[in-house]
# Entry
Amino acid sequence: MRNSKIIMSIRMIFKMLLRQKIVLLLILLIPVIFLLIVELTASENIHPIEFLSLEVPESIYLPERQISLAYYSIATCGFLVAFLALFLVQQNRLVNKRLILCGYHPTELLMSTLVVMVIIIAVIAVYVGCLALLFHKFDHVTGFISGLMLIGFVYGCYGLFVGSLLKKELEGILAIVLLVNIDVGWLQNPVFFTQSENKNFTQFLPGHYPSQSAIMRAFTEFPTDDITIYAIIYGLLFLSLAIVLYYFKMRIHKF
# Structure
C-alpha cells in the first residue's frame, strides 16, 4: 500500500466533490433551514429528558426549543454524513474499478475514502454545531460538537456499508432514508424517547448511544465514556462489514 496513491486518490475524491456545486450548496442550506424552522416553531414548554444509558438512569428538564435545536442538529449530521458516505462509494465505483486495473489496490482506495469521510464528519459537525450556537448557547460546546462527530461516524459507516452492499443509487438512498428517518429522525427524539412505552427497542438502534451522548455533553456533566464506546463499536461494526464487502467486490471484478 503506497501513501502516494492514497494521497492522489484523496485529491481526486475532493475534486469530484467540489464539482458537485448543488450538493455543496444543499449541505450548507439544509442545517440552516432545519434549525431556523425549529427556532420559529418550537415552544418554551419544559419537558423531562431521560438518560437510560447511564449506570443509574438520570433525568433533566429542558425547554422544548433547546431540546429541539440539539436534536435536529444531531439528526441533520446523521442524514448528511450518511448520504455523503453513500455517495463516495457509489459515485466512484466505476472509476475505482478502472484504477484497480491501472495498478491501485482496493485497500488504497478504501483508505482514501475513509480519510475523506473523517474530514467530512469533522467539517459538518463543526459547521452544524457552530450554526446551532447562533440560536442557543450550549453549556458545553466542544462536548456537543464531539457528540455530533460521533453520530456522523456511526451513520457515515452505515452509509459506507449501504454503498458497498447495494449497487444502484435509488436502492441505496431508500436504505439510508429508511433507517435514518426511523432512528435519528424519529425514535431518538429525546421527548419521544422519554415517553415511549418500548424503550428497549429504541436503545438497540445505531443512533441511540451517539444521540444520548450528544445531548448529555451539551447540557449536563454526566459521564459519557461508556456510551461513547458503545457508539464506536456500532460504527466499527458497520465499517467492518463495509470493508469486507468493498474489498470482495473490487477483488472479484479485477480479474
Q: What stands out?
A: Strands lie at 46-51, 58-63. Residues 89 and 163 are 5 Å apart (CA to CA). The longest strand covers residues 46-51.
